[in-house]
Design goal:
Radius of gyration: 21 Å
Strand content: under 5%
Number of strands: 0
Number of domains: 2
Helix content: over 70%
CATH class of the largest domain: Mainly Alpha
Number of helices: 10
CATH topology of the largest domain: Tetracycline Repressor, domain 2
Largest sheet: none
Structural class: mainly alpha
Order of helices and strands: HHHHHHHHHH
Length: 214
């Protein structure tokens, strides 16, 4: 009597194992940063949470600064993907700038963003972290500009670049106040004011819908 054929699970390639280990480390880093802050997110705690050895962590991320910087980039790549999905579900006849602005505000309000803000504050007195985050920050700005160019071309123009920077800075400030003091009462008014600024900048009735929405 022959035994039934048994199915075998394909073995993962070395590249797949490497990617899996890195992703676990980055996800664990973000979780530890959210729970414990930068000072409390030790590499030993991150390694334990990721079920990764110290040697594996050192191989991919030789320093804590390199690890947290990579985790920030990993976080924002995920946010960008979720933003794209959400924007694809906005009704064709909706005010896309209004929808996009509020979706962006929601991403700034995520707990992970609080951890990111804390990292940038810590970088003030940590030269290694500051240098790592400088490169990551440049990549993030490029990511934001790509999305602005795709969804709201007028905001990506050279003459409107300051306005785009102002929007990001405003949303970061609102998020920081919310994280520290739990204050969100004025957020809608601020977002309405940003919309008004856009309409004034492009100076035409209904310009938010026609020019900014693309």
């Amino acid at each position: 009597m022959t035994s039934p054929a048994t199915s075998t699970v394909p073995r993962r390639t070395q590249a797949e194992r490497r990617e899996s280990t890195q992703t676990r480390l980055l996800d664990a880093t973000l979780a530890c940063l959210i729970e414990s802050g930068y000072a409390g997110a030790t590499t030993a705690k991150i390694e334990s949470r990721a079920s990764a050895s110290r040697g594996a962590r050192l191989h991919y991320f030789p320093t804590k600064a390199a690890l947290v910087s990579a985790a920030v980039a990993h976080l924002f790549e995920g946010i960008a993907a979720r933003y794209d999905r959400a924007m694809s579900e906005v009704a064709p006849d909706a005010n896309r700038f209004r929808a996009g602005l509020r979706l962006l505000a929601d991403t700034f309000a995520e707990p992970a963003h609080a951890a990111v803000l804390e990292l940038f504050v810590a970088a003030r007195t940590d030269p290694e972290l500051r240098e790592q985050l400088r490169e990551t920050s440049a990549r993030l700005h490029q990511l934001v500009r790509m999305r602005a160019n795709e969804y709201f071309p007028n905001l990506a123009r050279r003459e409107a670049s300051g306005l785009l920077e102002a929007i990001q800075a405003t949303l970061s400030g609102l998020a920081l106040r919310s994280f520290v003091f739990g204050e969100t009462k004025n957020q809608d008014q601020v977002l309405d004011l940003i919309e008004h600024m856009i309409e004034t900048t492009f100076d035409a009735p209904g310009s938010t819908r026609r020019n900014v929405d693309g």
